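[recover] target loaded
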């Protein structure tokens, strides 16, 4: 019996592979069948991604637009806005590449019934669109999709883009949220220190009380230069997302930033070069925080050296 079941699954898989091969066919299809795209993404208020296996809903990710701007992940975390923008752009550009041949439609439905990501798009009027997202296309373009209430699945793509759509609908929370590096605001901070391998360029800014003036340790610096730098810490600073791999244990940091708060707490974040691009830094909250990816254009303005404050 087990062997028969395995053979049946293999047969379904083979039929599906055949079904996803490009055929060049086009058909006259109704909007209820192929209206995957979202025309006005500015009106989207919420997107819910749910993993469904054998009809049972599992893990879920909720993206909610905020009235003050930005998005929240699962009602708790600030969303990484470029990732949300890519999702909205994807929803807007969804396009049917081709219908499946009749021989592959049943196999496609069975595959979606077994497992899919349910994409629910909401606006002020409620549920605007619900889509089932299945396996990637065989040739590396597009993915299997079916609208709620539709009769058949289709191979859907973004015109001109080579790649699967599945990666744009990841339901792992860590891929969507930003991570706080320095969560406190400036009024809570008592001291800020940057440590470089060249200790002559390291510095420490501090004040004794919340209303006391700031000074740089062991030197004289213009107050306006210090104040301009401190403005960077008026808002919490966030990392873009978690790094896919752990930091090599032998990798030395480029620098570290230590922040002391009036509460007595301290934060130390170490920054490392990225092996793949100069547009990102790797960061880690010492001693055992997860490795994070930080955009260089966000952090470069923080990475001043002592000589910066001593200029006339």
């Amino acid at each position: 019996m087990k062997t028969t079941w395995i053979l049946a699954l293999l047969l379904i898989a083979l039929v599906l592979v055949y079904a996803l091969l490009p055929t060049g066919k086009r058909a006259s299809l109704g909007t209820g069948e192929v209206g995957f795209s979202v025309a006005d993404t500015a009106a989207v208020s919420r997107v819910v991604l749910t993993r469904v296996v054998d009809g049972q809903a599992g893990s879920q990710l909720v993206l909610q637009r905020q009235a003050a701007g930005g998005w929240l992940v699962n009602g708790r975390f600030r969303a990484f806005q470029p990732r949300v923008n890519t999702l909205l752009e994807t929803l807007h550009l969804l396009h049917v590449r081709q219908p499946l041949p009749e021989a592959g439609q049943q196999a496609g439905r069975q595959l979606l019934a077994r497992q899919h990501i349910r994409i629910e798009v909401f606006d002020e009027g409620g549920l605007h669109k619900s889509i089932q997202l299945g396996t990637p296309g065989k040739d590396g373009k597009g993915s299997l999709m079916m609208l709620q209430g539709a009769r058949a699945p289709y191979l859907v793509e973004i015109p001109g883009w080579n790649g699967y759509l599945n990666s744009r609908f990841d339901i792992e929370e860590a891929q969507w949220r930003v991570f706080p590096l320095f969560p406190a605001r400036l009024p809570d901070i008592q001291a800020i220190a940057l440590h470089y391998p060249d200790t002559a360029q390291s510095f420490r800014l501090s004040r004794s009380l919340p209303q006391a003036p700031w000074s740089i340790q062991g030197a004289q610096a213009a107050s306006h230069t210090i104040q301009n730098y401190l403005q960077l810490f008026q808002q919490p600073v966030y990392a873009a997302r978690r790094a896919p791999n752990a930091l090599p244990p032998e990798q030395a940091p480029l620098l570290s930033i230590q922040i002391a708060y009036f509460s007595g707490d301290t934060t130390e974040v170490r920054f490392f070069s990225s092996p793949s691009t100069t547009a990102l830094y790797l960061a880690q909250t010492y001693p055992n925080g997860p490795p994070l990816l930080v955009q260089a254009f966000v952090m470069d303005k923080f990475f001043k050296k002592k000589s910066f404050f001593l200029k006339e």
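[recover] notes: Helices lie at 2-19, 31-34, 81-93, 102-114, 223-230, 296-299, 306-309.
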